[in-house]
Amino acid sequence: MLNLHVHYEKVIPVIVPVEDGLKSINFYIVKHGQSLSLIDAGMNNKACWDALISTLQKHGWSLTNLTEIILTHHHIDHIGLVNAIVAKHPIPVYASPISLPRLKRDQAFLEMRMEFYAKLYEEMGCGEVGKQRVAFLRKSIEENRNQAIEAAVHEITEKRLFQFDILEYPGHAPDQLAFYHRQQKSLFAGDLLIQHISSNALVEPDDFGNRLPTLSQHVQSLKRCNDLKLEVVYSGHGELIHQPYELIKKRLDGIEEKSERFLNMIQSGITTANELAQTYYKKRYSPLFQLVMSEIIGHLDYLEVKGKVEKVLVQGVWHYYAKQNK
């Protein structure tokens, strides 16, 4: 749907503090013309629900004034209130086509994804810890069945929706979209860019079970974001980001620096992803296993793409070696 309003009238952040490293869960009410869009939908909890309702009331609105929900990506802290909102007030929900099997918790897709991680963790040398993580995923398929989005989801396939340019920014999530307003130089960017922490490029399969080059995608997304004319980025967590170019450079430089650290560790004789993870992250390895392994695997893929490492399969486990300059 194309809305020809040149400017939106106001953006009202709904910011819900949390006690973890994310600092807050952010979603946004955008008033444009006769429409009142909700960009992302927080967590499915009382704090986010109460914050949404009170923010609407503060501006003279109620839930029934919302006209649509637009999702940046499928992660649970961005879609949590969708079912509760639509159950009380049926409105369209828009998301990337790539989001659909994830939002709908498609059984075949989830089972494929579980098998993807089983093979991945085995080939990365994760042993028993990897098997435990896969067992957790297997159990969660059943336990989280009721978290599927029940509303019909409209696929965002056009380059514009309402007054926004639709930009694909995969990396953190394969389905991550950003909504760019040219005239107001603003970007609703999901988790592409966060002021106080770097976003994880989470290792994921594509629809066919092949590993996505998530860190390389994230780097390219940041670089493309850097080419926009921007005054503010509305982030999914933490503070709004004003004049984001310095932060983008910091994030890109940080990725290069970390890749070099991992390359140095490989040159010192550490050859598997699991050994790198245990050595680098130490006590954080077990409690943050999925995030840690995503970080390591993403950087190994990135180093391989850049021609700095090569890998050899030894007894079912990939070993990485620094490429010798010729």
Question: Would you give an account of this structure?
Answer:
With 326 residues, the chain is an alpha/beta fold. Helix content is 38%, strand content 19%. It has ten helices and 14 strands. The chain has helices at 46-58, 76-79, 82-88, 100-103, 107-123, 127-143, 214-226, 245-267, 273-281, 289-305; strands at 10-17, 24-32, 35-39, 68-70, 93-95, 153-155, 160-161, 164-168, 177-181, 186-188, 232-234, 241-242, 309-314, 317-322. Strands 1-2-3-4-5-6 form a six-stranded mixed sheet, covered by helices on one side. A six-stranded mixed sheet has the order 7-8-9-10-11-12, with no helix packed on it. A hairpin with an 8-residue loop joins strand 8 (164-168) and strand 9. Helix 5 (107-123) runs antiparallel to helix 6 (127-143). It is globular, with a radius of gyration of 21 Å.
